[in-house]
Amino acid sequence: MNILITGGAGFIGSHTARALLDRGDTVVLLDDFNDRYDPRLKEARIEHMFEDSKKPVVIRGDILDQELLEKTIIEYYIDSVIHLAAWASVQPSIERPRIYSDVNVTGTVSVLEAARKHGIKKIVAASSSSVYGGITEMPFREDMNIMHPISPYAATKAATELMCATWNHLYGIPITCLRFFTVYGPWGRPEMAIFAFTKAILAEETIYMRGKDTMRDFTYIDDIVQGVIGALDNASGYHVYNLGESDGVPLPRMIAALESAIGKKATIEEVPLPQGDIPATLADITRAKQDLNYQPTTSIEEGTKKFAAWYHEWHDKIFTQSA
Ligand SMILES: NC(=O)c1ccc[n+]([C@@H]2O[C@H](COP(=O)([O-])OP(=O)(O)OC[C@H]3O[C@@H](n4cnc5c(N)ncnc54)[C@H](O)[C@@H]3O)[C@@H](O)[C@H]2O)c1
User: Fold this and answer.
1) pLDDT band at 322 (very low <50, low <70, confident <90, very high)
2) Fewer beta carbons under 10 A from the terminal one: N or C of the chain?
3) How far is the CA of 4 from the centre of ligand 1 (A)?
4) Atom 38, ligand 1: which residue's CA is nearest?
5) Is 142 a pocket residue for ligand 1 (Cβ < 6 Å)?
């Protein structure tokens, strides 16, 4: 397959690219390398994650530039699109709702339009567990009503799903939306808890735990990549799947796992869960197991060990380079 990955310099995109290249697909990454978080990490992923594999083609550009998308699809004979480019994260979406809407909603329309004009055969698009918003019944199932988002980010992801459903209805393109649950692992995003806590613990700074009862279905990156590729290989019609580990981990268990992985105790201060954040997430993954052969296997204890080993090797190399 000739696959375009939007947001391909991102955390999930770069790992997905690596796995697809390893099995022999041709991969083109499109990313604007924006500075929502330190772009040195995006550059480092491109420079180092493909050192012992085939290299992806890297295009620097914006998904809002539909002409560029169309040109890329034509030039590289693209037949499949994995659409991951987005502004991620809940809290900044409350500060900057407009950019979230522009990129996550209008940008998705731009990708869908470019795809249908040039005969793309299948699309996999990123949604998020945040679409479950205020729902308190656990675990979250794909057939729950998601029309109650509690942050602009969640609303843009629900809108992404609606756009995808519409383009499938109008043009018959097979499209699969994946609701990712708190993904972590090597080369992960620096503002996410596991990365930020590791940094703080090593620097002997206080970590701020957003509620001791807060629970997250932390999902290891390799498991997510297996689900994304399963979705690509099995795309037909329009479908939505949860991709979680299916293990609700309270924050104190995640922190204990990190302390053990790093070999150092944390100084913890409990703070309230901010507005916009969901108190608990847990994925029902029955559908993904059945249809995509999705089989997550990595516990938080095992995953944090792998993350800590990566952090130890790479953090300073990446972030001491000049921007
Ligand atoms: N990581 C998670 O826990 C998680 C959870 C739920 C959903 N998601 C979704 O999965 C997708 C990938 O997430 P990630 O963790 O890899 O995030 P990421 O921020 O590392 O990756 C997104 C990439 O998209 C790029 N991008 C943003 N705006 C762009 C634009 N206008 N044009 C071109 N590129 C642009 C960014 O530069 C970035 O490299 C996102 O859609 C995110 O919303 C992630």
Assistant:
1) low
2) C
3) 14
4) 10
5) no
Listed in sequence order, the residues at least 6 apart from 13 whose beta carbon sits closer than 8 Å to its beta carbon are 5, 6, 7, 29, 31, 82, 84, 85
Instruction: Kindly indicate the confidence band of residue 5, based on its pLDDT and cuts at 50, 70 and 90.
Output: very high
- What does the pLDDT look like over 194-246, one tens digit per residue? 999 999 999 999 999 999 999 999 999 999 999 999 999 999 999 999 999 99
> Residue 323 pLDDT more than 80?
no
User: How many CB atoms are closer than 10 A to CB 44?
Assistant: 19
DSSP code of residue 140: B
pTM for this prediction: 0.98
Q: Indicate the pairing of strand 122-128 with strand 80-83.
A: parallel
Q: Which residues contact 47 (CB under 8 A, 6 or more apart)?
A: none
Residues 6+ apart with CB under 8 A from 189: 10, 11, 37, 41, 88, 89, 195
Domains with residue ranges and CATH for the chain: 2-319 (3.40.50.720)
Q: Is the pLDDT of residue 321 over 90?
A: no
86 C-beta closer than 6 A to ligand 1: yes
Q: Distance between CA 39 and CA 33 in Å, rounded?
A: 6
